[in-house]
Amino acid sequence: MSAATVDGPETLPASCHDCGMVVYVAADPHAYAHCPRCDSRVHRRKTDSIHRTWALVITAAMLYVPANVFPVMTVTTLGQSQSDTILSGAIYLLHHGMWPLAAIVFTASVVVPLLKLVSLMGLLISVQRRSNWRPRDRTQIYRIVEIVGRWSMVDIYVVTILVALVHLGNLASIKAELGAVFFGGVVVVTMFAAETFDPRLIWDNAETPHDR
Amino acid sequence: MSDATLILCHDCDQMNRIGEVPLGGSARCSRCGGLLFRRIRNSIDRTLAFTLAGMVLFLVANLLPFLAFKMQGQVTDTTLATGVRSLYEQGRPLVATLVLITTIVAPFVQLVSLILILTPMKLGFAFPGQVALFRTLHKVETWSMMEVFMLGILVSLVKLLGMAEIVPGIALWSFVLLIPVLAAANASLDHHLVWDRLGRNS
Predict the structure, then answer these.
(1) What are the residue boundaries of the structural domains of chain B, listed by start?
(2) Nearest one of B8, B6, B63, B61 to B32, comparing CA atoms
């Protein structure tokens, strides 16, 4: 048997978020059932998905500003200090002839967070306006947002490794700065935002799919 | 087992009726094209093998010297966890926690839970916590970012090129091996099959 049924007039099938089992849940939007296989709560749609995702997206957008304005680290060599922001870190690589690496870092730390925020806002607005524009492509955008977000962590890791390796006092030392805290915040909050958004909302308004 | 399985698409809620899927094949949603599940040959054996290898590499990567930094006669030795401690000491506990979770805790939980789920399955017994453990694995997966950390190492090494001499330790090499091994373990895990087996035990 692949489906568990609960007797009652108004139940609809829902997919268990954890194990994928088909569980029948009452049609009321706040109703939930317990999955008979893995015991997690099954909702037909993620609870308050639109409001929660908006809250997280707006938080991330606010964190994005100090994350890029404040330096993420300060490098001290022979008594001279130089601070790097996310952007100047990528430009540094470019000036040293490492353009493929500069391109990767620039994409991961500048382009990806921005694209994630813009995509999630676009998806939220499209769902709120009950758009039925290309649901399949919008779902694909959501999947990409879910996958690429983690790569933004690369800058945090660079700071971590440099801080671990270089601490020889005035001769050479590297210190993590406030920008790293905000930037880490952007990555974490956007990852939660992607997880909170429910892609099934895209399809709720798409009665007639344009493409198959 | 019945020959047709009902599966709701995780992404678009379309009900899909899936017949027999051959080993090595996959089932996709008829409406949005999303992957419903993949059937993998010898999934449990392969995943277990990669996971056990991954555990050995993980321990080596964490316990032995990672990178050493040589500059004007001074040498700094580091392990994977040194960065976390340095961040904490510099007054950045939040960033330190984030790095600790994504590069050490999450991958460790991932490896341990896979071993605790798949070993009994291979040997033909079960214990009550396995369902909860597999659920934990799903939640932890997103936060395990070893491959991103690898890119971070690469960028850091380039940045330090002109500044000093960097001596790679044995842990760095195990870490480099750990990335593809962990990716192979994830790619060979048939979630559908594992849930099916866990469901039959309870």
Answers:
(1) 1-39, 41-201
(2) B8
The reply to whether residue A162 touches residue B34, judged by beta carbons under 8 angstroms, is no
ipTM tops 0.85: yes
Which residues of chain A have a CB within 8 Å of the CB of B6? Answer: 2-3, 13, 22
Same domain, A105 and A128: yes
**Residue contact B199–A168, C-beta within 8 A:** no
Please name the residue of chain A whose CA is at the shortest distance from the CA of residue B99.
Answer: A157
Smallest Cβ–Cβ distance between A166 and the set B7, B10, B69 belongs to B69
B191 vs A: CB within 8 A: yes
Residue A39 is part of which domain span? 3-43
Ramachandran angles phi, psi of A30, nearest 5°: -95, 0
Report the Cα A171 to chain-centroid distance in Å: 39
Q: Kindly list the residues from chain A whose CB atom is less than 8 angstroms away from the CB atom of residue B138.
A: 18
CATH of the domain at A183: 1.20.140
pLDDT tens track for B64-118: 999 998 888 888 889 889 999 999 999 999 999 999 999 999 999 999 999 999 9
A4-13 pLDDT, tens digit each: 455 555 788 9
Is A109 in the same domain as A23?
no
- Total of domains in chain A: 2
Question: Is residue A120 situated within a structural domain?
Answer: yes
Q: Do A158 and B159 touch (CB under 8 A)?
A: yes
Return the C-alpha torsion angle A64, A65, A69, A71, nearest 10: -30
Confidence of residue B164 (pLDDT cuts 50, 70, 90): confident
A44-to-A126, A129, A201, B9, B35 alpha-carbon distances in Å: 20, 20, 10, 12, 19
Task: Name the amino acid, one letter, at B96.
Answer: A
pLDDT of residue A212: 42
Kindly determine whether residue A161 and residue B156, on different chains, have CB atoms separated by under 8 Å.
Answer: yes
Kindly state whether residues A171 and A106 are assigned to the same domain: yes
Task: Identify whether the C-beta of residue B186 lies closer than 8 Å to the C-beta of residue B106.
Answer: no
Tell me whether residue A111 is in a domain: yes
